[in-house]
Specification:
Length: about 80
């Protein structure tokens, strides 16, 4: 069962700052997780409500999951050193 990816305005702004190749790579990774649950995903510790991160090379996508509505809310697209 797949997730519906919803991008927060801030996440879209952060994505827009990347070059075209990196934007495409991040977008594909988010879509792969949303449709097939594929990707390097970890739940972040000591954060409430729970957040997750999707690793894409040096980039991290932080998101929340609404299990009842099957929604993946994309919160941030950050470099690894800025994500935590």
């Amino acid at each position: 069962m797949s997730w519906q990816a919803i991008w927060a305005p801030r996440a879209l702004k952060e994505l827009g700052r990347l070059d075209c190749g990196e934007q495409h790579r991040v977008w594909q990774a988010v879509e792969a997780f949303a449709s097939e649950s594929k990707g390097d995903v970890l739940r972040l510790q000591n954060i409430a409500p729970p957040e997750y991160r999707l690793r894409i090379g040096k980039w991290r996508v932080r998101f929340r999951l609404d299990h009842d509505r099957r929604i993946m809310e994309i919160l941030h697209v950050l470099r690894r050193d800025e994500a935590y």
